[in-house]
Write a structure and sequence with these properties.
alpha+beta; eight-stranded mixed β-sheet; 31% helix; globular
């Protein structure tokens, strides 16, 4: 059977996003989330996909579990996968989520005691064209609390790299400072967070599932040794190391 035309696929995916969007929980659901020091949180997950440069089909899907608050690696799963869904802007989750879910399912089957209590996703959650980015998609389908952390600003719903945005970034004085990303509708879809005293360039945090925005921002800051929260940074490093070892002749590209 041939693939549906792009416009038909987009409409199908829009309907699926709208259906799943209704299931997103935008508030704290776990006891540890309400604790000032996240007492009771012991395991944080990070996921990422890394590609060989010039190949947008074959990727290393990575899951890493870290201890909290020490942020030491407890578990890692690197798996080469072949993406079958096309890349269409705003629908990244349909390409990536199945493989990230499979990694979580392998963990559940092999070492269920290490299942993460929250997952950091290299991408957006509610800060998205239709308020349903990769972190929301993975959260709803896995049932786990998820936080979206993007390294670059998605210019969406009236949020732009304007002079005002740049001045707000400049006003972030220290690690932990943030400002809201407010859509044209007036809804706050995420926050720009200065995650480290050493990095003046913010990350963009948004709710994925089963966590409030303020808690997501506070947790993200607590997981940052550098600019990018450690679960995502480790997932990125480990997946790129896997590609370097198994595909030594290939250029795996450089991520900031």
């Amino acid at each position: 059977m041939s693939a549906p035309p792009a416009e038909d696929l987009v409409r199908q995916w829009e309907r699926e996003q709208a259906r799943l969007r209704q299931q997103v929980v935008e508030e704290d659901t776990e006891d540890w989330q309400r604790s000032p020091d996240f007492s009771g949180l012991e395991r944080v997950g990070g996921v990422d996909l890394s590609f060989i440069k010039g190949d947008d089909v074959n990727a290393c899907a990575q899951l890493v579990i870290l201890s909290y608050p020490d942020l030491e690696v407890l578990y890692e799963d690197s798996q080469m996968v072949t993406l079958t869904a096309p890349y269409i802007a705003g629908f990244l989750a349909f390409r990536e989520t199945p493989f990230l879910l499979e990694a979580l399912e392998r963990l559940q089957e092999n070492q269920p005691t290490l299942l993460p209590q929250v997952v950091f996703v290299d991408g957006n959650g509610l800060f998205h064209y239709r308020e349903f980015g990769l972190a929301c998609h993975l959260g709803v389908l896995s049932g786990l609390p998820c936080v979206g952390v993007a390294k670059n600003l998605l210019q969406v719903q009236g949020v732009y790299k304007s002079e005002e945005h740049q001045s707000q970034i400049a006003a972030l004085q220290r690690g932990g400072d943030s400002f809201p990303l407010t859509a044209a509708s007036g809804k706050v879809l995420g926050k720009a967070l200065r995650s480290s005293d050493r990095s003046s360039k913010p990350v963009y945090v948004s709710v994925g599932h089963k966590i409030s925005l303020d808690t997501a921002v506070r947790l993200t800051h607590s997981c940052c040794r550098y600019r990018v929260p450690e679960p995502i940074r480790q997932a990125d490093c480990l997946s790129r190391e896997y590609l370097r070892i198994h595909f030594p002749a290939a250029d795996t590209g450089i991520k900031e």
